[in-house]
Amino acid sequence: MAAHPGCTLADMQQLRTFAIRKLHLLPEQVQIFTPTPSTWSTLMYRTGKDPFSGQPIFVEKNTDNKQQQKAVLRRKA
């Protein structure tokens, strides 16, 4: 899942590296995070905070940047 609250482009690049080196694959499908009611993820998306610690977290809300996170995993090596 791309653009989950707390996930940065650098995180997606690390995930790509892990998937290639350790799993020897890239996912066929990647979904961009969509807020859904009554979930911790949506709470983080709306508030920009970790619900357990109260610390600020990064939340990508720019559509182009969300697509960029998704593209990192979809690109063939």
Can you tell me about this structure?
By secondary structure, this protein is mainly alpha-helical. It has one domain. The chain has helices at residues 9-23, 40-47, 63-74. Helix 1 (9-23) runs parallel beside helix 3 (63-74). The longest helix has 15 residues, at 9-23. It starts with 8 loop residues before the first helix and ends with a helix. The model has no long low-confidence stretch (mean pLDDT 94).
So what's the overall shape? elongated
Low-confidence stretches: none
Provide the number of structural domains.
1
Q: Estimate the strand proportion.
A: under 5%
Instruction: Compute the separation of the termini in Å.
Output: 19 Å
Task: Supply the helix-strand structural class.
Answer: mainly alpha
Instruction: Give the H and E element order.
Output: HHH
Number of strands: 0
Mean pLDDT: 94
Q: Count of helices?
A: 3
Share of helix among residues?
40-55%
Q: How would a crystallographer describe the biggest sheet?
A: none
